[in-house]
Each structure stands twice: as structure tokens, then as C-alpha cells.
Amino acid sequence: MFQQLHTHRNAKPAVSFRALLGVLIAGLGLSAVSTRNALASTTITGTVGTSGKYLVTGAPVTTTAVTVLKLSFENNTPGTNLELCAGTAADFAAGTCSLRLSDSGGPGFVFLTITDTSQLSGKIIFVQRAVGIAAATFALTVE
User: Which residue of 20, 24, 63, 120 is most buried, as measured by CB atoms within 10 A?
Assistant: First the structure.
């Protein structure tokens, strides 16, 4: 009933082009969704040694906007407890935790702290041993 009027020597079926286009659009959509939901995070691991303290930030925190930070803190050493602290350089030197962001339990416990950056502005962040005498390893994840 229908008659093809013109054919091209190198013609490819339109179905394969449409399928390729559909797969490409779906792939781009999935990558856009996963990229949009990706959060930037930094994990710091360290050991609180004989001094009983570990300096996390080398300079005071500076911020120009109120932003929420999610901090996950974990002590990996049995028989010790650690504190995640914010304070001045003098607080660090004296071993004073003027702003306790988190305490630790034993291995396997991860404690979550959600705070805004305005509370940390002008302070340094450090970890100090609260219980025990052994060197204690920890992990701190900041998102």
C-alpha cells in the first residue's frame, strides 16, 4: 500500500538512534541526580598520644555565613574516652575543653554532632583524652 520514494545508501534504522538517545538521556538524568545529592566530606584520622591532645585545625575556623556542619566522631581504642573540642589556642595548650562538640564511647560507637559554623568561628578544633592513659586513635568526618 505504501511505497518508499527515496532510500539512502548509508541509512541506519531510526529505532537504534532513538534507543541510543533514550539511554543517553537516562544516563545523564541519573548522573545529575547522583551529583546533586553528593555531599562533600573530609575524614581525619589521628592518634591522641602521650600529650593527651591532638590538634585538628591549624588555624581558627573562619566563616562568613551561617552553615550547618555535620560532625561524626569515633574513638577506636578500648579503655579510653576522647572529647572533640573547640576553643582558643590557650584552651588547647591548657587542655581545657571550653566547647565540647562530642564525647566518645568505646570502639564501634560513632557520635553525630550537628552545629552551625557561627559557634565555631574564631576557634580551633582539637581532640583530647578524657579517660585512660593509652594512645587512642579516632576518626572525625566533617560534612
Answer: 120
Cα gap 98→95, rounded to integer Å: 9
Average pLDDT over residues 129-137: 95
SS3 40: coil
Phi, psi of 33 (to 5 degrees): -65, -45
Give percent of the chain above pLDDT 90.
62
Q: What is the pTM of this model?
A: 0.72
Residues 112, 27: Cα–Cα separation, whole Å? 34
| DSSP structural state of residue 117 | G
Mean pLDDT confidence for 81-97: 96
For residue 67, give the nearest of 40, 94, 88 by alpha carbon: 40
Q: How many helices (H) and strands (E) would you count in the chain?
A: 2, 8
Helices (H), the chain: 14-37, 89-94
